[in-house]
Write a structure and sequence with these properties.
Layout: H1 6-12, E1 19-22, E2 26-30, E3 38-44, H2 51-57, H3 59-77, E4 82-84, E5 100-104
Antiparallel strand pairs: 1-2, 2-3, 3-5, 4-5
Helix pairs in contact: 2-3
The protein binds adenosine monophosphate.
Amino acid sequence: MTAECVFCRIVAGDLPAAVLVETDTVLAFRDIAPQAPVHVVVVPKEHHTDVAALAAVDPAGLAEVVKVANEVAEREAEGEYRLVFNTGPDAGQSVFHAHGHVLAGRLMGWPPG
Ligand code: AMP
């Protein structure tokens, strides 16, 4: 946990969030600025800077993130979704705590912006 990390603060219960799924190691909650009708952020409870760091240190934790993302999408969008891990500022990462975005509920364009 880092005191300045917004997702660590949500995990700790210091900041409110609309939580959909909680497991021993993962939390899924609605994105505060949704980019699709369904937009849910799935985070490991433990702090890792990005998905690459999570994969290197805790592959099972990454697998749990993907499993929970799929559960959310099954529940909210009949299992059709995009799972995005922005990694690094140039890719659009703004919160440096590993997270996957579950985006669903509308047609997705390709290539992404
Ligand atoms: P990224 O830009 O890929 O790092 O994604 C970070 C996401 O976190 C953005 O989509 C933000 O809208 C979202 N976000 C930031 N603060 C909060 C918060 N307090 N509760 C829920 N989502 C948040």
